[in-house]
Specification:
There is one protein chain. The chain is mostly helical and 305 residues long. It has one domain: Up-down Bundle (Na+/H+ antiporter like fold), CATH 1.20.1530.20. Helices cover 80% and strands 0% of the residues. Helix 4 packs antiparallel against helix 13.
């Protein structure tokens, strides 16, 4: 029952984590050293909940999966980059916005794909392939788009992403393969676990940002532009899908690609930036606010009609 409540009101839970950070920022700062651990645990749960045998879809629909990854790692990041350069003046916000736009598909994408009668296997294929590609493509694309304004060395970023994405996914796969009882417990309670780890990460992100970053009047105006940029990122693809996708694409495949490309694992950008650049981490923090709307089923139902 609790799992179903979490699934239905996932977006509201994200909003509550943000409110908690605004009310208790000092508690969030105390948890700051644990941010990477929460992100690692979130990715391990992802590795356990992925239905690995279904990855044969990659061989069946390579063009559709390639198209989904092109949207995730090329089309959306370029759009966010252009909007950021036009609307923002702070390099760290631009960096954080582009980093958030480059993150792979979120673990909840297949769930929402199934909920709206999309091709769940295709969504799983995009999810896993985008995660596998992320340690390679994110540093490269950040360097190509932002050049010298990147605040982290490319090799250091690649190393951290290898530790925080493929490693916990492999650990999750190993637990699922060799420890069936543990795997079942985690799988059955995955909505709650995802909610807990993600909420803690969001709580820390906003609390640390409030305490460590002096925004000033100009900074607050830029937060509004960041909000607009992420609304375009999250909902632009959904609203413009009928003009973007070729007419003969099956509706189930179209739904899978739209949701998998729109629902990004922003926790990766937030977790890494919290360590190296809390000011840049504000951007993925703002993206979480928009994700709270995106992860709300009744809103998606109206938009996907």
């Amino acid at each position: 029952m609790l799992n179903n409540i979490v699934k239905k009101y996932f977006g509201i839970g994200i909003a509550l984590a943000i409110v908690a950070a605004l009310l208790f920022p000092y508690s969030a700062v105390k948890l700051h050293p644990l941010a990477v651990l929460f992100l690692f645990c979130l990715m391990v749960v992802t590795g356990i909940t992925i239905d690995w045998p279904r990855m044969k879809i990659i061989l069946k629909k390579p063009i559709a999966i390639l198209f989904g990854n092109c949207i995730i790692y090329l089309i959306v990041p370029v759009i966010v980059f252009l909007l950021s350069k036009i609307l923002l003046t702070t390099d760290q916000y631009i960096y954080g916005a582009v980093f958030a736009a480059l993150t792979p598909a979120a673990i909840v994408a297949p769930f929402f794909t199934r909920l709206f009668k999309g091709n769940t296997e295709l969504s799983f294929g995009i999810l896993v392939s985008s995660m596998i590609l992320s340690p390679l493509l994110i540093p490269i694309m950040l360097k190509l788009l932002l050049g010298d304004t990147v605040t982290m060395p490319t090799m250091l970023l690649a190393k951290d992403m290898l530790l925080l994405i493929p490693l916990p996914l492999l650990l999750g796969f190993s637990i699922k393969t060799f420890f069936a009882k543990i795997s079942k417990i985690v799988y059955d309670n995955s909505p709650i676990l995802n909610f807990v780890f993600l909420s803690l990460l969001i709580f820390i992100l906003f609390g640390v940002s409030l305490q460590k970053v002096n925004l000033g009047y100009g900074g607050y105006s830029e937060l509004g532009w960041l909000l607009l940029i992420f609304f375009v990122q999250d909902f632009g693809l959904i609203l413009g899908a009928r003009f973007v996708f070729w007419p003969r694409m099956p509706s189930a495949d179209r739904t899978a690609i739209i949701l998998s490309a729109s629902m990004k694992n922003i926790a990766i950008a937030a977790g890494i930036l919290l360590i190296y650049d809390p000011r840049a981490a504000i951007a993925p923090g703002i993206a979480f606010i928009v994700h709270a709307f995106l992860f709300t089923p009744w809103i998606l139902k109206k938009l996907l009609k």
